[in-house]
Amino acid sequence: MREAHFQDAVIQLCRFRGIFWYHPYLSHRSAAGWPDLALCGKSGFLLRELKTDKGRLTREQQEWGTRLRTAGISWDVWRPEDLRSGRVQRELEAIR
Questions:
Q1: pTM here?
Q2: Is the pLDDT of residue 24 over 90?
């Protein structure tokens, strides 16, 4: 699954659950490594980096992830397998 299709699927799940989402329109003008999606529900906030099954994090993405987690923010990586396993849906439901 291409990352763009994966992102579209996640956004559709957010819309269905009433979760607000944000994705930088032109990521090349954003800070390097900033996560793909900010997700805000009534019960929580998530930052998620989306990768294909074989996609690798850049050094900047790893650094942002470490700093965000250290600051107490829920940051993680989602892959298409996480959609198939139901992980994405469970984590979205938890912040709904």
A1: 0.92
A2: no
